[in-house]
Design a protein that fits this description.
Layout: E1 4-6, E2 17-18, E3 24-33, E4 36-44, E5 62-63, E6 66-68, E7 75-77, E8 82-83, E9 98-102, E10 105-113, E11 119-126, E12 134-135, E13 149-152, E14 158-162, E15 173-174, E16 177-178, E17 195-198, E18 211-212, E19 215-216, E20 234-241, E21 244-250, E22 257-262, E23 269-276, E24 286-291, E25 294-301, E26 313-318
Parallel strand pairs: 19-23
Antiparallel strand pairs: 1-7, 2-26, 3-4, 4-6, 5-8, 6-7, 9-10, 10-11, 11-12, 13-14, 14-17, 15-16, 17-18, 20-21, 21-22, 22-23, 24-25, 25-26
The protein binds beta-L-arabinofuranose.
Amino acid sequence: MSPDAQTTPPVAPGTARVLATHLYTADPSARVFDGTLYVYPSHDIDAGVPEDDTGEHFAMEDYHVLSLTDPDGPVTDHGPVLHVRDVPWADRQMWAPDAARSGDRYVLYFPAKTAEGLFRIGAAVADSPVGPFTPEPEPIAGAYSIDPAVLADDDGAHYLYFGGIWGGQLQKYRDDVFGEAHDEPAPDQPALGPRVARLGADLTSLAEPSREVVILDEDGVPLRAGDHDRRFFEGAWVHRHAGRYHLSWSTGDTHLICYATGDSPYGPFTYAGVVLTPVPGWTTQHSIVEFGGRWLLFFHDASRSGGRTHLRTVKVTELEHDDQGRIRTVTPG
Ligand code: FUB
């Protein structure tokens, strides 16, 4: 498909800009490469799959890449850039992706289910940020569940975060091994955290086993599994601001994007507040990026489809950090 440029109303203070209206998009991971902003979203479709608690109705099949040279300017659609039929190990459900770069090599990270119904995380490589991406023959060894997100740290190291509970299957793992009998911790036990591992120089393999990221409350105690207003559910994202690492995530069934701060990409992180209040639709997802001197929050909602939760639309709005480095809560307009 040839690039398709579309202009929608710009970002204005206190409002959000819809990025594209010619397709449904969700789970936006925004990245800046060589002065251009690229958005790697899920491409929502109505595949006619009945809704269930594991999210089978999120039956996405491919990815598009959107690009902008100005947050208020035209949006170009470069997709489709990867289809599930071209991924040897994947069967269905191309969920929230992300991308990273090393030199002239760009890697798209994506979760998908195998024919056996297990979510794994794959990598696909291109010589351009807009693909087309060639998938690796196998999923990334040691990575599983959903929602990959990459931190490109200031020292050149890259870290892969991943995981999501319930339909994302993270609660089924112990020591990196899937077990059908495993489940979430009891409400008074520490909540499950996302996983993190440093990536190898090829960016398509883990350089070490993943470890769990711990999120602490204000007393230095790990958040509890029953603390649904704050505990990690899915959609981890890490950005750096004023020398600190900010981890943000979705709380799932309480529909918030929260964040915590720390001094290492591995954590621990201390809970700091709400980034985004609930949006129309069950899921909420996001990314945070600095572009052209502005901090931007990308997110999605289901308002354009009248609340159909698997037909979402990516939006962008301004994000502010105060002089203490705290994020001001965004309430979508
Ligand atoms: O888009 C499918 C899934 O819904 C994503 O992987 C989650 O983060 C949630 O947005």
